[in-house]
């Protein structure tokens, strides 16, 4: 592949949370770029369905089922990379704790929010880095932040705190891993129309996509007056992993239809 996503063909990528939603779109995009993709997801059901569909298309994909907070399972997933694949040199950290609470959050709810988003992120990144050579792997990591990392939203204390921490994690890791030539960046999407968001808008707000996008409190907050499709997040992630982004590290790329611009 040439152009903005050059240097991805033949590489092995690990995608956490790759069974559904944005992660599945990232996996598909990386497959299309010629990568071999290892999906690490806690949902065996969704992971199996996604991986079977990609295998049927001829893509080189593999599923490891586990939680990002389970250190032994994370280690086993990296150890299970097929012999004929190179070790993963690309990592996309998407798994997160989806807990939306304010100050009423209990200690358990804080753990459910932050353990996957931050502790899991750290465990997966550590295992990934441990398998890399001292230098020269052209390795790259993309972490999933959100517009929620940059703004205040009522009732989102637990989620937004975790996503803001992803920005700090990304900067520190970029500094610490630069001597090995490993680039680390994050992306901050706005609302992405996936199954979860469709369910939430329908059940909690009584809105379908068209009505939600035309509502000033929802789609209307984006300069582009709409939500994103998962593929629109996958494309900039593929770019940040590629050698087209060889001088980009330690930063966050908003992929937000202009939400943070105003
Ligand atoms: N959907 C949006 O509007 C949006 C916007 C900004 C950022 N994000 C972020 O993008 C990422 C993906 O979100 P999505 O909406 O596509 O989610 P999703 O629910 O569609 O998919 C998340 C996947 O992650 C897996 N997962 C969750 N916790 C896990 C864990 N502890 N260990 C292993 N796997 C785990 C789930 O099984 C699922 O397959 C998240 O980090 C989310 O915070 C989403």
TrEMBL record:
<keyword id="KW-0520">NAD</keyword>
<dbReference type="InterPro" id="IPR002347">
    <property type="entry name" value="SDR_fam"/>
</dbReference>
<dbReference type="Pfam" id="PF13561">
    <property type="entry name" value="adh_short_C2"/>
</dbReference>
<dbReference type="InterPro" id="IPR057326">
    <property type="entry name" value="KR_dom"/>
</dbReference>
<comment type="similarity">
    <text>Belongs to the short-chain dehydrogenases/reductases (SDR) family.</text>
</comment>
<keyword id="KW-0560">Oxidoreductase</keyword>
<dbReference type="InterPro" id="IPR036291">
    <property type="entry name" value="NAD(P)-bd_dom_sf"/>
</dbReference>
<dbReference type="InterPro" id="IPR020904">
    <property type="entry name" value="Sc_DH/Rdtase_CS"/>
</dbReference>
<feature type="domain" description="Ketoreductase">
    <location>
        <begin position="11"/>
        <end position="196"/>
    </location>
</feature>
<protein>
    <submittedName>
        <fullName>SDR family oxidoreductase</fullName>
    </submittedName>
</protein>
